[in-house]
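Thread: Newbie trying to understand structure tokens

Hi all, I'm a second-year student working on a class project, and my supervisor (Dr. K.) asked me to get a predicted structure for one chain before our next meeting. I've only ever worked with sequences, so writing a 3D structure as a token string is new to me. If someone could post the tokens and maybe explain what I'm looking at, I'd be very grateful. Here's the chain:
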Amino acid sequence: MLSRVVHSLSRRYSFSKITSKVWLYQRSIAPFSTMPGSEVTIGTHDGCFHCDEALACYMLKLLPRYKDASVIRTRDQKVLDSCDIVVDVGGVYDPSTHRYDHHMKEFKETLSTVIKKSGYKSNIKLSSAGLIYCHFGDEIIKILVPEVTDEYDRASIFKKVYETFIQEIDAIDNGVPMFDGEPSYYISTNLSKRVARLNPTWNGPKLDPDEQFEKAVALTGEEFTYFIQHAARVWWPARSIVGDAVLGRFEVHPSGEIIELSTSLPWKEHLYELEEELGVKEPIKYAIFHDNNYRVQGVPVKAASFICRMFLPEAWAGLRDEELSAVSGIPDSIFVHSVRFIGGHKTREGALAMAAKALEIGKSIESGHAETNSK
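---
Reply by user tm_fold:
Sure, no problem. This is what the structure looks like when written as tokens:
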């Protein structure tokens, strides 16, 4: 297992170096229009439009066979039946005839049920955006980031974009709450809300709904393109660097529970996967890296959490400069956040000393708790 993962990391390192040269986000790839352009037609519903079908149309028109297609917005079933592909309307989900509606009572498809492969996990019901992404996403990724030629790399990018972008659109369109109970506040600036704002208002100026829909398609497309390119050219190339850090962790500290990253980069999700792939027995507790100054950060229990596997010491919380240096016993310390998930030092050696001392204190506390619990 170890040799396979090491070889895989080595193979992908060359991809990391190549893509680091072309990471810049391209704001647009080509002029976009939903207006009639050929005999090929994409059907979707008229009336109030939503984020999912706007994005579905954008994704389809990235494909060579639909690039010049006309988008027909209607609920006339006879017209829809004549379309080459239909999204978000029509009452049928049938990939063999290119019908991609999700509004039927019996429809329960998710990423996991459409892509029946290991690692494709989601219980969120798909919208038309999710359906088109599941069926055509790999082909679209090849078009938007042609330098990604490896199937494993594309699959990783595909899953990342679904989890961080498409899934949100699916959930919002299908009315899936983020959690049980009422939220403390509501988000009114997400992509779905911004698309909704493009619909003509009941008491506003008369706008052409099809022209407004075209704006919605362009808006969703810009964000979709960003997420694909960012995942491929920023997030994924970081994996080889995190892999090197995990493999070299015992050179940083004899415990193997502290890693050193060569720079500040997206590391958390990669770390969890690499720990599992490499069979890391003792979970890594801290990462040190350079970002203006040197940082020591507790590894969170999951990527978006501020709950750490092991926090920095409580006695350091919220302290800065001389006071922190005096309490920690580590000169030139800069700060520790009041929540204790991150701290800073002027030097690499000092950041490592902070991590090592925090690990020692944390282990001592854990051992004391274990003794207490065993009595």
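A couple of things are worth pointing out once you decode it. The chain is about 45% helix and 10% strand. Residues 209-235 form the longest helix (27 residues). Feel free to ask follow-ups in this thread.
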